[in-house]
Amino acid sequence: MVAQRLKKMRTALHRTALAGGRRNYLRKVWGMHIGEGSRISLKAKLDFTNPGGVHIGDYTIVTPMVQIFTHDFVRAKHLDTYIGSYCFIGAGSIILPGVRIGDHCIVGAGSVVNSDVPDRSIVVGNPAKVVKSNIKTGQFGMLVGRTVR
Question: pTM for the full model?
């Protein structure tokens, strides 16, 4: 019992400290715009070519192996990329430069987002397509209550 409680406390402390530390590092050192309470995996790849172009809202989670781009080398452009508040960005997803993902959105694992995503939507696939609208999410894009298709 005691060992189990200690393990839970250690995990919670570790997760909170790392998440806050990474968020502050990306904000202060690289000038990224990252909202309160957002969590970004240590294995997520954010574009450091144009770091000021990364905008992530409050209480959004970016999971491992996600790639967020803010520059297009071929067209020689730097474009801001926006991810709203209360979103979940699934593992291995790619967010292309200039894309705007609305608030309360879920991006399925492995999706390639090449166009804007409306608020309260679930998108999946390559290229990402809306499969569900009018959803409700809480912190980190977790579905809340019943959803309407």
Answer: 0.86
What's the pLDDT tens digit per position in 100-115?
999 999 999 999 999 9
Least Cα distance to 42 among 8, 59, 58, 66 occurs for 66
Collapsed DSSP state (helix, strand, coil) of residue 122: strand
Percentage of the chain beyond pLDDT 90 is 77
CA dihedral 11, 106, 65, 26 (to 10 degrees): -70
Q: Which helix (H) or strand (E) holds 15?
A: helix 2-28
For the sheet containing 67-68, what is the strand order?
A: 45-46, 67-68, 94-95, 112-113
User: 46 has which bridge partners?
Assistant: 68
Domains delineated in the chain: 2-141 (2.160.10.10)
Phi and psi angles of residue 27, each rounded to the nearest 5 degrees, phi first: -70, -55
Separation of alpha carbons 67 and 99, rounded Å: 13
